[in-house]
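Hey, weird one. I pasted the ABC transporter ATP-binding protein sequence into the form twice and got a warning about non-standard characters only the second time. First submission, copied straight from the form history:
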Amino acid sequence: MSAGDGTDVPRLVVDRVTVRFAGLTALDAASFTVEPGSVHALIGPNGAGKSTCFNVLSGVYRATSGSVRLGGHELTALPSHRTAALGLARTFQNIVLTRGTVADNLMIGRHLHTRAGYLASALRLPAAVREQRVHRERAREIAEFTGIGAHFDHPVGLLSYGDRKRVELARALCAEPKVLLLDEPVAGMNATERLAMARTIAEVRRALGVSVLIVEHDMGLIMRIADQVTVLDFGRRIAGGTPDEVRRDPAVVRAYLGAGPDSGSDSGPDTAEQQNTAEQQDGAEQEESA
Ligand SMILES: Nc1ncnc2c1ncn2[C@@H]1O[C@H](COP(=O)(O)OP(=O)(O)OP(=O)(O)O)[C@@H](O)[C@H]1O
């Protein structure tokens, strides 16, 4: 897919961000940097502050103190539509797209880049029609890239759960972001869908050169695709480094054990079961293609 070469992707700097909710400190002076063109994972047990952090970055919550910078821009006090205009796009943990066709939903993602006003579009003035056509072509290209091209004109409500998660990813990509925030992109997917999504995310970074910040409980996926990992616990950054460094960090092991090693998918940085699932799947595919 044609795209930017990634050279204009700015560094995202989260600097001592604190968020308090009526006595509860959800984020406690958390700092980390997402390097241009990297895949950076934000992990931690339930309630660690990951979603709160995403909500600050995307302008949904305002930080009590600290700052978030994207290149030379201070994002801290900006509303969502301004952070989006600066190049930040996000997906949501729970699928919110249930109406219209895939194309309709992706065109919502193109909204930022649409110049024709509502009236010109409603009256189908030639310039507006031309613009719509160009955006629709780009949306189709992004649909192909994310593996849902065959469903472009289908209602999203008829798609499988895994494909609807892809529509959510494609909608975010339609904004042509420089930094993509993915909130649990494989939650609820089966092993095959997870593996396919991991490949798509890796391909997004490779082909588009964008930075990806990902919150995900599937540690197998994080270990496969992340360059850097930041670990939060009770709102604090307790560790950071490569997936391998983080996996061996005693503070990280302690945090996850404290959360309960049997507590479902959130069972630790070295969730052997999940990693095995992905690796077995990989092995099976290699055998098939041999
Ligand atoms: N709007 C809010 N009002 C009050 N407390 C909140 C709000 N949002 C989050 N919290 C609290 O802040 C803390 C951090 O929550 P957050 O959702 O950011 O954690 P998380 O790491 O995303 O957890 P999970 O993995 O379960 O999604 C929790 O104690 C949560 O109850």
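That's the output from the first submission. The warning seems to come from a hidden character in my clipboard, not from the data itself. The longest helix spans residues 126-145.
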